[in-house]
Write a structure and sequence with these properties.
single chain, 60 residues, mainly alpha, 3 helices, 62% helix
């Protein structure tokens, strides 16, 4: 129904600004998850270190 209305009215432009960080996972949370995976044997030490660098780089 909405799609039909938009189609008949033509193009609609929506502008605005989205502020805030929608990723509610903190660096500490991410690192904790990685450490848990390491402890469980799901990650090797090398994989853990590589992922840790990625997390720290992306949030820094």
């Amino acid at each position: 129904m909405i799609e039909e209305h938009i189609g008949k009215k033509g193009d609609i432009e929506i502008t605005g600004t989205i502020t805030g960080d929608f990723d509610t996972t903190s660096v500490a949370d991410e690192l904790r998850k990685l450490k848990d995976l390491l402890d469980e044997g799901a990650l090797t030490k090398e994989e853990f270190e590589a992922q840790k660098k990625i997390v720290l780089r992306s949030r820094g």
